[in-house]
Design goal:
four-stranded mixed beta sheet; 19 strands; 29% helix; globular
Length: 421
């Protein structure tokens, strides 16, 4: 049996570091699709070096007959739409977990627009066989309470549809900030795309324009440093994060407001609109006795706040988590299982809510499993401030979004040892 890579983590008594965050994966992947649809002349600058973006770069560059995107969910959704409007025949596939992640809503929507897509194994799930050709476009309805990546995938191809796209979102709209990020990125390349009603987005059939474009750094990755600061026991701890933008369109930039409630204050070296700058995090006393928050607009922050609040022993109730079950793993079940190892009994209700009322059990301190999910490793690592010698299995999963995470933790004074060293 192959041995499992395991890291043993111990936090420093005092955190003081300057960290260059990775580029935004979300903006990178959107801009790459637009780059391919606009003539492939000017490659965006400061592209993310994470696995998901590298997979997309390779796929768009080579366009092989069979494209394996491995575990990259964004690439699967965006390429499904992109290949539908790109001449050629391709098989789009991924890992076993990817083959369990539903894609029927997106495929049905593209078929409604005239796309030629068939399932090669299981109905409603990858792999897909896609025969690309020009699509007419037109009006379309899609549920708003599923993955925003389905909606973004459709929007991104809107400008190359003959008649554009009028997209009506039915029901509750989740992850709206990610939809707004897509629209903002599209407009950077000359697209005419915007909300024309509270539930309707209109994209005209005006082609993208080739333009230079630089990608800002990632607010999702910043969230783990906010957590590290909140869990630090030293009031003099300080972290500086490079390459973030005040007024960012990234939905996860809301992290600065949430963590303000937990005593972490954010200051920007520059507040010039659109200018990447250095953000300084400082720790102040946290007076909060309970936290309730709806993560409908920023579900990728949920694991960070769940683990952080447990570490701070702050009871919480977090809603808007319905799509966590169809991510890289069932994140709700994974959080329940792994936090129990540390003595926290968190519970879910209605499939979209996690809460902790302070109930604890005896901690086994067994190694934290990561379930091939980068955000499990990223969000549990700061708990080493509370649990010295915290062990994490398969720490390499962070390469999906933050490849340099462990080195950055070392820079900040964390001891990161490989089991058996």
């Amino acid at each position: 049996m192959d041995s499992v890579l395991q890291y043993i983590l111990t936090a420093p008594a005092h955190v003081n570091a300057k960290i260059k965050l990775p580029a935004s994966k979300s903006i990178s992947n959107r801009s790459l699709i637009i780059y391919a649809l606009s003539g492939r002349k000017t490659l965006p600058e400061n592209l993310s070096d994470c696995d998901d973006t590298q997979v997309l770069i390779t796929a768009l560059r080579d366009l092989p007959e069979t494209i394996n995107i491995h575990a990259a969910g964004t690439a699967m959704r965006f390429l499904t739409a992109y290949l539908s409007v790109t001449p050629g025949k391709h098989i789009l596939t991924g890992t076993d977990r990817m083959k369990q992640r539903p894609i029927g809503i997106l495929v049905d929507s593209l078929r409604y627009l005239g796309a030629d897509i068939t399932y090669t194994e299981k109905e409603g799930y990858p792999p897909l066989c896609i025969q690309g050709h020009q699509l007419e476009g037109g009006a379309l309805e899609i549920p708003g309470n599923l993955s925003s990546q389905f909606i973004s995938a459709l929007l991104l191809i809107g400008p190359v549809l003959k008649n554009g796209l009028i997209l009506k979102l039915t029901g509750t709209i989740i992850s709206r900030p990610y939809i707004d990020l897509t629209l903002c990125t599209m407009r950077e390349f000359g697209a005419q795309a915007d909300w024309t009603d509270i539930d309707t987005i209109t994209v005209t059939g005006k082609p993208y324009q080739d333009r230079p474009f630089s990608i800002e750094n990632d607010w999702s990755s910043a969230s783990y440093w906010y957590e590290a600061m909140a869990l630090s026991k030293n009031s003099q701890s300080m972290v500086q994060l490079e390459g973030l933008t005040d007024g960012s369109k990234q939905g996860d930039s809301v992290v600065k407001y949430i963590f303000n409630l937990l005593g972490i204050k954010t200051s920007f070296a520059s507040t010039q609109p659109g200018k990447a700058t250095t953000v300084t995090l400082r720790r102040h006393p946290c007076l909060l006795s309970r936290l309730e928050y709806d993560f409908k607009g920023s579900p990728d922050l949920a694991q960070t706040l769940v683990t952080c609040c447990c570490g701070l022993k702050i009871p919480f109730k977090f809603t808007g988590l319905s799509n966590l079950r169809i991510k890289e793993t069932d994140r709700i079940a994974a959080l329940e299982t792994e936090l129990r190892k540390l003595g926290f009994i968190i519970k879910d209700e209605n499939g979209d809510t996690l809460y902790w009322d302070g109930e604890q059990c005896e901690a086994s301190l067994a190694p934290i499993d990561t379930y091939e999910d980068h955000r499990m490793a990223l969000s549990f690592a700061p708990l080493s401030s509370i649990f010295p010698h915290l062990r994490i299995n398969h720490p390499e999963v962070v390469s999906k979004s933050y490849p340099n995470y462990w080195n950055d933790l070392r820079t900040a004074g964390y001891r990161v040892e490989e089991s058996g060293e």
